[in-house]
Amino acid sequence: MEFRSQLETSSQVSALGPQPPDPSPQSPASAVCACNPLRLNLAFSPEPAGVALETEVKLRIGNKAAVRDHLLQAGARPKRERHFEDNFVLDFEDQSLRQSHALLRIRSTDRVCTVTYKGAPVPAGPFKQREELEFTADDKAACLQLFRRLGLTVWFRYQKFREEFEVSCDAGVAHVAVDDTPIGGFMEIEANESAIREVAAALGFRESDFLKESYYTLYEAECRRLGIQPADMVFPDTSI
User: Fold this and answer.
1) Using CA atoms, how far apart are residues 96 and 74, in angstroms rounded to an integer?
2) Distance between CA 199 and CA 207 in Å, rounded?
3) List of domains in the chain
């Protein structure tokens, strides 16, 4: 993969995620969650053999049009045109998913609703690697209502516009997403480690530019920088 110029990047943003307090052992809601079999499966079950692992990094980008041009010059194949995504992150009242660094998310687009579980990330290394399980549905409201019945509620909502590409390189095939969010532009590269390094380097990025933080952590850091309280990372004039 060859490019005529390198892209300008900004410094990495890092921040610690939220540290919620321990739930009260006398709380009735916590007692209900404690015996909920779904919660046990999501947060505490041992990993089954052959579990699917996601390996990815984020990169902060300034000029999304330049990124897109460089991807196309590299022979990237557009996989999905720019589209809007609305994401709802859920947890139990005792915050057991966050405490175990797991994630349960409902993502809604104009085509489909995708329900995703992600396990705790591997702590070492420059890549974000974690178990990922997901399925699709056609009714966001029904998915949200189902999980509410099981004792989960939405604790964070974030939105973005995303364009998706597939890039073939010597090390394999990479899935690349270019995101426009309320806190700026980002690119996600998902592939094996060697392919991530190869694609990122061809786009002018160094390994020191890799971000492992979630969108919530990046958003929380931006709120601290601006001196405002975190809420939901949504575009103006958005209603659920």
Assistant:
1) 43
2) 11
3) 28-226 (2.40.320.10)
Give me the residue label for tokens 């380097």: 201
Question: Which residues does the chain have with pLDDT short of 50?
Answer: 1-35, 37, 40, 42-46, 240
Closest C-alpha among 164, 8, 181, 162 to residue 71: 164
Separation CA 203–CA 7 (nearest Å): 6
3-state SS, residue 94: coil
Measured CA to CA, the distance from residue 22 to residue 201 in angstroms comes to: 42
**Cα separation, 3 vs 1, whole angstroms:** 7
| CA 20, 222, 201, 68 torsion-angle sign | positive
| pLDDT in the model for residue 238 | 59
Helix H segments across the chain?
A: 28-34, 37-43, 64-73, 96-99, 140-149, 193-202, 215-226
Dihedral-angle region of residue 22 (phi above 0 means left; psi in -120 to 50 means alpha; beta otherwise)? beta
pLDDT 10s digits, 152-201: 999 999 999 999 999 999 999 999 999 999 999 999 999 999 999 999 99
The structure's pTM equals 0.77
Q: Which of 125, 119, 88 is nearest to 106 (CA)?
A: 88
Predicted confidence (pLDDT) per residue in 102-115, tens digit: 999 999 998 799 99
